[in-house]
């Protein structure tokens, strides 16, 4: 149940299920990003044992905030963590929360006329080195390096699905906070900064944490990235295209099966990404005042890769013969054979008019 809120007239239906992940009773604390209508939310959860039969031996609460953008929510995480602990130890005292709301409400208010039509933050038509969403993880390693470490070469599979704007659902048992960051990282794979690209494809929406209460919403979405702790979603195949169970990426669509295979071009991209990360670590050690972060490197690596692909496709589509060859594919950093299916899906998804003349390999 929602125990207390400000302002009191805001529609918070279902927010009690979004701010406390299913299965959270098994863990001591967590944080959770979610979406509520046009707003993004961040809630901190804590679980405290109590000697009370009425509360069945445990008191569990979440304290959260809603904002029209998720990018700066992390700044308030420390406050929310302290407040949820305070609410567990001294229930019913809301003065700190009321003061926080009075101080921040100008920042969090959507303003007149903006309603639910806020543009998604990820798919900006142009992206500057430091303009992408600023959302650093709470431990020093950084969320991008955790993402790379967790998925390894499979981030190239996720990259292709993200670029094709597929519905991607990531399953993991609680804690869900780190999984919300995987949603964010996945979205960072598909940035494109070329004008005229992306107008024909659906918006890809970061939904962060979802549960069974979100099923109706997800049924009408054509593209999203989300995470859940509820295993029941795996059976509801009509809701997703790609299902990620921990490190296992899978799809039930036959035509997407070829995209699950890592090819030689993927391995080369992964090698280059790691090489650049090592160079960054070395430069940070050598030059103390030079400190670009790994998030920058990660976002720019995929942004440049995506721009190279679309630049080539646009050039070919405006040429006389509109013919895309194996040489073009290699120039885009793709495997002419291994990425043939991905290229065909990409041309269809973005409505690019070129003719693919990369033959299928002959079967022995």
Automatic annotation (TrEMBL):
Identify the InterPro entries for this entry: DENND11/AVL9_GEFs, LCHN/Anr2, Tripartite_DENN
**UniProt key word S-adenosyl-L-methionine:** no
Q: Name one GO molecular function term.
A: guanyl-nucleotide exchange factor activity
Q: Keyword Cell inner membrane: yes or no? A: no
Q: Which Pfam families match?
A: DENND11
In terms of domain of life, where is this protein from? Eukaryota
* Sorted UniProt keywords: Guanine-nucleotide releasing factor
Give all residue intervals belonging to the UDENN domain: 1-364
According to the UniProt record, one GO cellular component term is: cytoplasm
Which PROSITE patterns does the entry link to?
A: DENN
Instruction: Supply the PANTHER family for this chain.
Output: DENN DOMAIN-CONTAINING PROTEIN 11, LATE SECRETORY PATHWAY PROTEIN AVL9-RELATED
What the record says about family reads: Belongs to the DENND11 family.
Protein name as catalogued: DENN domain-containing protein 11
* Origin species: Bos mutus
